């Protein structure tokens, strides 16, 4: 925690708003975003591209956190966004996000989703497999329409990360394989289809990556492919989209480069490889999700029960848990926490910070160093902005928390807390 995160009362503050006031005003569990941090993250990426003098897009991967308000902020910052479902696309549309600045991803987009994308004039559809090429060409034919497309390829890079969140290796469900001729065949199909305008090549190697070599390797592979395609088909790519995955700080074990430094390394690699291979310098697109919203998010919970057992770490239970943040249970993801009214207090014990869900695995932080807590204390988990709310569930029929945006000392509700009535809104009584 930085000194700037603590106010005069000694409390945690988020964008100048006292975390205790937020907890009292909106109740807990509560997800809060420091909107200034989101803006800064986007601007830092843009600055690097501007300094390097390349064409670019920063395309926010909205699976990390999707709601009307976030698309508004991304749009205000001049960003693109990528969506992976009809639901994300719908949300972006309803937020007034310009459809021509949307990329549509996914390994099994449905006919209905593709039709929606074509009808709405989505900027680019990122083709993932042969079935989709087929489906999209049918749809374009039926609608007498055309679409920009990119081809997603697997560059054969295994980034060192949790196996569930690595995607660039050969054995992945995503994208066209580069080695076996799949990618070539896909390009042939796209180039032969006058309704498809081939806009660029895409790859994404994984998520929460710290090692810049993975990205450089990916950039290198894409340049090789671009060069091979120029030679073989006379097709020269306008865009290289290198995906997202830039790692962020969750605990002090994580020492990532500033996210924009990954980008600098990628840009330098693309520049040098293009020069080497006599390719025109394409625009470089990135798709960061986590690094844009992750560090900006704070989860506020209230302490309740406690279980002490001699010889074992104590359990301190919070009023949320795996329903609003599945990442620890699913990926053994780690977080840090502070007590909101004394974030700089000395740690006095190590406790298992657990949730309220009926599962032994509902542990938000194992062996978490904290000052002694009492029921009623507000605890904040840090850097929870990515893949927390967006992966939330109603497990145990717990309502999803509210989400608040804070900026320049002002807080505003952007997603209401679910009510019990919301939970049964789609339920129908069984009649026999
Ligand atoms: N582009 C594509 C094609 C992706 O599949 C992803 C993430 C991203 C961009 C954004 O990656 P980011 O910059 O956020 O790392 N639920 C997991 C992460 C899954 C990521 C899936 N794809 C987690 O909570 O760690």
Q: Can you give a write-up of this model?
A:
The chain has 432 residues and is an alpha/beta fold. The protein has two domains: 3-33 and 296-424, Lyase, Ornithine Decarboxylase, Chain A, domain 1; 54-292, Alanine racemase (TIM Barrel, Alpha-Beta Barrel), CATH 3.20.20. It contains twelve helices and 20 strands. Strands 3, 13, 14, 15, 16, 17, 18, 19 and 20 form a nine-stranded mixed beta sheet that branches. An eight-stranded parallel β-barrel has the order 4-5-6-7-8-10-11-12, surrounded by eight helices. Strands 1-2 form a two-stranded antiparallel ribbon. Helix 2 (35-52) packs parallel to helix 9 and helix 5 packs across helix 6. It is globular. The mean pLDDT is 96. Residues 61, 64, 105, 165, 167, 204, 207-208, 243-246, 287-291, 327, 331, 386-387 line the site of ligand LLP. Ligand LLP binds next to helix 10 and helix 11.
Task: Describe what is shown at a glance.
The chain is α/β, with parallel strands linked by helices.
Question: What labels would you give this structure?
Answer:
432 residues; TIM Barrel; Diaminopimelate decarboxylase; binds ligand LLP; 12 helices; Lyase, Ornithine Decarboxylase, Chain A, domain 1; alpha/beta; nine-stranded mixed sheet; DAP_deCOOHase_LysA; Orn/DAP/Arg_de-COase
